[in-house]
């Protein structure tokens, strides 16, 4: 009975990205262009990797999963944001808000762990090539894949459980265009200091440690490549450089959002927009544009379907 009396908020009102109609229109056009062009590109990457036996190496297996994660991630925020831009009242139910928050961190956490696995794959391939086929066997790859999905689930469910325990009795205006931890926590009608610290530890510290660990691992790999005189030196450098670009695109905004106290800054919404809408769609495309094998296989797949 006490819980019923305290948790009276049944819906939240999203304030949105901006109140300027011109900027909203610009955001709508840019987001729609990215969504229409790049989302099918991610799906094409998945189909290409699955249909070409020559792309069966662990690197491509994980790249296909990255494209799947990013395509799924883009469905959480972008479609609703595009609809809400022209809605007078941007209302989201309490359950829908919690659901959106869960999948946002479930897939985002899984992707962060996937980048760690991909770094491990490159380390073994470049620094321990004789052990590669043993360490990165098909069974090991599937175990790693299940582990990162489970890790993303645990990361997300912790956030959701902490939020579900908070009472919400008004106000109910979320200062963003989607539901995320920092904005939702601020609406709780109780002291949230301890919960905020737990959230920073769960999201912020984990993100920062993964980021620093990834940079360190790629620094070790690049040093090893630089000292070697193998034929695939340029290809290894190109692949690692691409991975580092993706790491900065993903972890940079996440560190900015989740590793500091939950106080609103003027640039928060812009950072969130790129973090949740633009970068997830671009990640696999960046990988593909710098990978000759995938590009060649993709062209063959497209030509084959056009001819048929």
UniProtKB/TrEMBL annotation:
Main localization (coarse): membrane
One Gene Ontology term of the molecular function aspect: olfactory receptor activity
Keywords, ordered alphabetically: Cell membrane, G-protein coupled receptor, Membrane, Olfaction, Receptor, Sensory transduction, Transducer, Transmembrane, Transmembrane helix
GO cellular component: plasma membrane
Domain G-protein coupled receptors family 1 profile: 41-287
Origin: domain of life: Eukaryota
Protein's membrane topology: Multi-pass membrane protein
Ranges that cross the membrane: 23-47, 59-78, 98-120, 141-164, 205-225, 237-258, 270-289
Pfam families, alphabetized: 7tm_4 (PF13853)
Localization: Cell membrane; Membrane
Classification via InterPro entries: GPCR_Rhodpsn, GPCR_Rhodpsn_7TM, Olfact_rcpt, Olfactory_Receptors
Family the entry assigns: Belongs to the G-protein coupled receptor 1 family.
Name of this protein: Olfactory receptor
Native organism: Cricetulus griseus (Chinese hamster)
Classification of source organism: Eukaryota, Metazoa, Chordata, Craniata, Vertebrata
């Amino acid at each position: 009975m006490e819980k019923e009396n305290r948790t009276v908020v049944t819906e939240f009102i999203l304030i949105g990205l901006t109140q300027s109609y011109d900027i909203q229109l610009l955001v709508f056009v840019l987001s729609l262009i990215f969504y229409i062009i790049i989302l099918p590109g991610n799906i094409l990457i998945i189909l290409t990797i699955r249909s070409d036996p020559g792309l069966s190496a662990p690197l491509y297996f994980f790249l296909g999963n990255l494209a799947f994660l990013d395509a799924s991630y883009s469905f959480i925020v972008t479609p609703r944001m595009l609809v809400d831009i022209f809605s007078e009242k941007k209302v989201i139910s309490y359950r829908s808000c919690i659901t959106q928050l869960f999948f946002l961190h479930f897939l985002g956490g899984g992707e962060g762990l996937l980048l760690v696995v991909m770094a491990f794959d490159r380390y073994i391939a470049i620094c321990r090539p004789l052990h590669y086929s043993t360490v990165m066997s098909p069974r090991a790859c599937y175990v790693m894949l299940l582990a990162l999905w489970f890790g993303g689930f645990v990361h997300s469910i912790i956030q959701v459980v902490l939020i579900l325990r908070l009472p919400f009795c008004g106000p109910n205006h979320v200062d963003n265009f989607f539901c995320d931890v920092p904005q939702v926590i601020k609406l709780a009608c109780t002291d949230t200091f301890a919960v905020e610290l737990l959230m920073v530890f769960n999201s912020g510290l984990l993100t920062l440690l993964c980021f620093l660990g990834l940079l360190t691992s790629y620094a070790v790999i690049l040093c090893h490549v630089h000292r070697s005189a193998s034929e695939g030196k340029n290809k290894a450098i190109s692949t690692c450089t691409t991975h580092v670009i993706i790491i900065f695109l993903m972890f940079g905004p996440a560190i900015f959002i989740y590793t500091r106290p939950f106080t609103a800054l003027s640039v928060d919404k812009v950072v969130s927009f790129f973090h949740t809408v633009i970068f997830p769609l671009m990640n696999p495309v960046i990988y593909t544009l710098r990978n000759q094998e995938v590009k060649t296989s993709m062209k063959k797949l497209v030509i084959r379907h056009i001819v048929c």
